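During the no-cost extension, the postdoctoral fellow (Dr. R.K.) reprocessed legacy sequence entries with the updated structure-token encoder. One reprocessed record is reproduced below for audit purposes.
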Amino acid sequence: MGNIPVSWRPVILGYLILINLAGFILMGVDKRRAKRDQWRIRERTFFFVALLGGSLGTVLGMRTFRHKTKHWYFRFGLPAILAAQAALSLFFFLRGRG
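Re-encoded structure tokens follow.
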């Protein structure tokens, strides 16, 4: 994890696990509410969670629950956020090793 102090690594890992779990669960909850014609989660909430680091969980939730897959901005936007975050992570990881 690059130049991140060892003491912070478990905190960051824990945060990423929780935010991705939140993204996954939000997709499942919204899908359930859609089927029951209930109050729905705002679409911007999904993108906000993804931008906070939960893009992998949100994309996995979208695929698992087959939810929001007809909206082009979800089908392409969430994976684009995931790709950008993966590229940034790789950049900082490699930069910290050299």
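Residues 6-97 form one domain. The chain is about 75% helix and 0% strand. The remaining legacy entries will be reprocessed before the final report is submitted.
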